[in-house]
Design a protein that fits this description.
Elements lengths: L3 E6 L16 H17 L4 E6 L30 E4 L10 H7 L4 E7 L1 H14 L4 E9 L3 E3 L2 E3 L1 H15 L2 E3 L1 H6 L1
Parallel strand pairs: 1-2, 1-4, 2-3, 4-5, 5-8
Antiparallel strand pairs: 6-7
Helix pairs in contact: 3-4
Length: 182
């Protein structure tokens, strides 16, 4: 079996209902992510936490030094788990994520987090492009409604479209329950 690594993307306070960018289903996604993190820790699967921070001190979202950028307590890292701070959508861009995965011998990644249509999407595609087999736990990810050209797309449809794209060409998409049952 290949060495797996769990990447937990941007499960930060900013996405909670009290934040400036609340996501549909974020509490359920974080609860599922917490279950997966606990399982990874029990099985000695390395966990890599990604935390987004804006570069501008006056940014309306992910403002550095505010509680909004803190990782949600339910999925908080423990000693020894790296927290990789990123300033871009892609968790690999201008970070040492790849080096940290390689240093831990990770050959396959499991991805959970937020937002499905942005940071999760970018990480899934980049990881697959780098040759990592990817598994996305769809119910441990969350997103929000999007609008384009006067049309509002409900979060559930945004999420489903992304998960379908991942499954079509980037990796395996499964539920938390199915993943934990293996």
């Amino acid at each position: 079996m290949k060495q797996r690594g769990l990447i937990v993307i941007d499960l930060q306070n900013e996405y909670l209902p009290t934040g400036n960018l609340p996501l549909s289903g974020i509490e359920a996604a974080a609860a599922n992510a917490a279950r997966v993190i606990a399982d990874a820790r029990a099985k000695n699967i390395p966990v890599f936490h990604i935390r987004h921070e804006a570069t501008a001190a006056d940014s309306p979202i992910f403002r550095p030094g505010t509680p909004a950028v803190d990782i949600q307590p339910a999925v908080a890292p423990v000693d020894g788990e790296p927290v990789i701070v990123k300033n871009h959508i892609n968790s690999f861009r201008e970070t040492d994520l790849r080096q940290q995965l390689d240093a831990r011998g990770v050959e396959e990644v499991i991805i959970v987090g937020a937002m499905s249509h942005m940071c999760v999407d970018a990480c899934v595609r980049a990881a697959a492009d780098m040759g990592y087999p990817v598994t996305v736990l769809h119910d441990a990810c969350a997103t929000l409604d999007l609008s384009f050209n006067g049309v509002t797309v409900p979060a559930a449809h945004v999420h489903a479209a992304l998960m379908a794209a991942f499954e079509f060409g980037y990796g395996t998409v499964t539920s938390t329950q199915a993943y934990l049952a293996v």
